[in-house]
Amino acid sequence: MHILMRTLTFAALSVVALGSPAMMRAVQPSPWSNFNDNPIFYPNINATSWRTLYGRTLQLSDKSILLSWEDYDPAAALTYFPIWKSTDGGASFKYFSRVDDQVNGWGNWYQPFLYALPEPFGGYPKGTILLAGVSTPRDLKEAYIDLYASANKGRDWEFVSHIVYGPGREVIDRGEQAIWEPFLHMHKGQLICYYSTQVDPNHNQKLSHKTTKDLRHWSQEVDDVAEPDSSVRPGMATVAYSPVSKKYVMTFEYCGGPIASGCPVYYKVSNSPLAFGSVTSQPIIPNDGQLNPNGSPFVIWTLEPGNNGNGIFIASGNSREEIFVNTDAVDPNGWKPINVGQWSAYSRELRIINTPKDSAAQGEQKLLITNGGNIGCSGSCYNFVANGVVDIPNYPRS
Ligand SMILES: *[C@@H]1O[C@H](CO)[C@@H](O)[C@H](O)[C@H]1NC(C)=O
Q1: Residues 6+ apart with CB under 8 A from 398
Q2: Which domain of life is it from (predicted)?
Q3: By C-alpha distance, which of 33, 34, 51 is closest to 42?
Q4: Which letter does DSSP use for residue 382 in this model?
């Protein structure tokens, strides 16, 4: 997690100028169509802090889409992760349920992450929905990354286990033992949880993971990006896998790193999702001669349309609206920007979604991009949750 003060976007300015966010709702996109910059949820104008942040989604087998985010509802005694649901390809969402803190008495606050079990695991059936996120009290005294599960498609939730403990305070200041940003990935009968941690006194912040074989007991911590220079601050790991090249890519922001100022987007490529630690980091340098993406990245892999079973990695960083694509081989010189017309955001989420055959999208897969707003946006700057759906791009070969 980092603090990146953003200038007001045109959208944010429009809201303030109009006085009421509700007046800004655009024409609602038609179901299963392509669209951009589609407002989904406007927080109360009096919501605290950033009002909203960190949108995360999951598509279920019935093609509905669940959505959560960091929510700053001023009326809630304890913070919680809202769960909203779309049955029209992300064009519109309605409130569906919420994930309350069931064990700490603190509230569920930061960085929700949604994941569906790809196989029966830990006594839960395939398709069980997991949510990992940071639970911390209002005074930020300490924190857990906690795991919740829903066996009924996100309607009801139960606490499963504590994954990581942060003795606190849960703030980004150096020397505070905070934990952030869980990311789940199933691998060979183990569930991996990647996260950022400030708990190790040898590092300002490092990226680590733990594994579990039963969802309840978690392994010792294994480091993935732990730099000897204690002034640098890698953060916000996400991981994608190409079944074509059998390569795993972890993207992260590298605050205070060797190139550029701010938090340039870096990545590691590994043959194992458990062995990023021994791999050298490198920056995403786009081949358009413009600035490298900076801050809160996200990465996915997908088949490339019409390319005979070959795929592309797609990455995103906060400072640029474009997405950055690379082939299965992840050539360091191969990152190419593509403009998809969607506002940038703090930790903007990328997801491939399936569409119904009898819909406007005719069963084609699409790229869903979810914005929770920008960190540093408070006061007269107004965050809200928005999304876009675009065609999966082809790798630019010219
Ligand atoms: C926001 O707070 C102000 C001042 O307390 C209050 O007058 C207003 O009704 C609140 N707005 C909403 C939408 O709750």
Answers
A1: none
A2: Eukaryota
A3: 51
A4: -
Is pTM beyond 0.90? Reply is yes
**Nearest ligand 1 atom to alpha carbon 45:** 13
In sequence order, what are the beta bridge partners of 233? 255
Peptide bond into 138 cis (omega under 30): no
- Residue 26 or residue 370, greater confidence: 370
pLDDT over threshold 80, residue 329:
yes
Unique residue bearing structure tokens 């200038």: 7
Among protein residues, the one with the nearest Cα to ligand 1's atom 6 is: 46
- Residues 378 and 390: their CA atoms lie apart, in Å, by 29
pLDDT category of residue 398 using cuts at 50, 70 and 90: confident
pLDDT band at 23 (very low <50, low <70, confident <90, very high): very low
- Neighbouring-strand partners of residue 208: 195, 223
> What pLDDT is attached to residue 2?
61
Q: What is the CATH number of domain 10-17+32-391?
A: 2.120.10.10
The amino acid at 115: Y
Q: Out of 15, 23, 46, give the residue to mutate to test ligand 1, the one with the largest number of ligand atoms within 8 Å of its CB.
A: 46
Protein residue whose Cα sits closest to atom 9 of ligand 1? 46
Instruction: Assess contact for 239 and 183: CB atoms under 8 A.
Output: yes
**Cβ density class 160-197: b for 16+ within 10 Å, e for less:** bbebbebebbbebeeeebbbbbbbbbbeeebbbbbbbb
- 3 state DSSP class of 169: coil
Are the CB atoms for 224 and 208 separated by under 8 Å? yes
Closest C-alpha among 185, 190, 207 to residue 198: 207
Of residues 230 and 126, the one with the higher pLDDT is 126
| Main-chain phi, psi angles of 291, to 5 degrees | -60, 145
- Classified as helix, coil or strand, 10 is helix
- 104 - beta bridge partners? none
Whole-number Å distance, alpha carbon 46 to ligand 1 midpoint, is: 6
What's the DSSP call for residue 120?
-
pLDDT above 90 (res 169): yes
Dist. CA 211–CA 205, nearest whole Å: 20
Average pLDDT over residues 183-206: 98
Amino acid, single-letter form, for residue 188:
K
